[in-house]
Design goal:
The complex is a heterodimer of chains A (about 120) and B (about 140). With about 120 residues, chain A is an all-alpha fold. Chain A has helices at about 1-5, 20-45, 50-60, 65-90, 95-120. Chain B has about 140 residues and is mostly helical. The interface between A and B is medium-sized, with 23 and 21 residues.
């Protein structure tokens, strides 16, 4: 049992993929970006000079808004990935099913981002 | 003398059907599970929301289509749910961020902030939902 005795203190063997903290932090950071986007959108919407289609499309026609929107959407996808992965890990016990759902989630989110990107290109 | 062993409490995971109907979830627990439910709902409905976003922006014709979609009762119903989901997720998320910065970590403060989440998100949702149904 000498192996066990050496596995204590600073010599302790630390295992794991180390993505717990990274995911935690990135979920918070992406949330912050989305919150800022929501507030910018709200302010622009409430205090815009033009109403209807002209005002709405005019807002998203500006380059800074396009970039901010795409950044916020990219953050949304990463945020949703962390959250959905947590949900699958908590409730789906079968490894095969869980990994399949995780892969579907990734495809789903990338497809959503691509769709949002091409919408922004058309404005 | 050996009698029958005293029965000890057994702790097990919650069972959806056996435990949940009688489970007294505290407000913080309600906020937490609803945070997850609202997030999952927004994830599942994301393509629909992006479709609405697309229609609202591409052209004046698509904008009219967007407005017509808004007139359908089942779209309004779906959006009512998603409005609540967005606002609950947003406000509960801010509570999360504040707690991550070590504000209100105590048991009593946690309960209070959880009730505050409902006090903010529910009236705000009601206001927006009544607005899209054309009450005012």
């Amino acid at each position: 049992m000498s192996g066990q005795r050496e596995n204590i203190g600073p010599k302790r063997l630390v295992v794991g993929a180390h993505y717990g903290f990274k995911d935690w932090l990135s979920q918070r950071f992406t949330a912050l970006v989305m919150a800022i986007f929501t507030i910018v959108l709200l302010v622009a919407f409430l205090f815009g000079q033009k109403t209807g289609y002209e005002g709405w499309a005019g807002l998203f026609a500006q380059t800074w808004m396009k970039i901010l929107t795409l950044v916020a959407f990219a953050c949304l996808m990463y945020h949703a990935w962390v959250g959905m992965r947590d949900i699958w890990m908590d409730y789906v016990k079968s490894t095969a099913l869980r990994l399949s759902l995780q892969m579907l989630t990734i495809v789903w989110l990338i497809a959503c981002l691509a769709y949002a990107g091409q919408t922004l290109l058309k404005v | 003398m050996l009698g029958t062993p005293k029965s000890r409490p057994v702790y097990r995971n919650l069972n959806l059907f056996r435990d949940l109907p009688s489970y007294r979830l505290p407000p913080a627990g309600m906020v937490s599970i609803l945070h997850r439910v609202s997030g999952a709902a927004l994830f599942l409905m994301m393509p629909f929301l992006l479709y609405l976003f697309d229609r609202s922006l591409v052209s004046e014709i698509s904008y009219t289509r967007f407005q017509n979609l808004f007139g359908l009762w089942y779209v309004k119903l779906l959006l009512s749910g998603l409005i609540w989901a967005y606002l609950h997720h947003f406000v509960a998320g801010i509570r999360h961020l504040l707690m991550d910065m070590h504000y209100g970590l105590g048991k009593r403060q946690g309960r209070r902030s959880a009730l505050m989440v409902f006090a903010i998100s529910l009236p705000l949702s009601a206001l927006l939902i009544l607005k899209i149904w054309g009450v005012f």
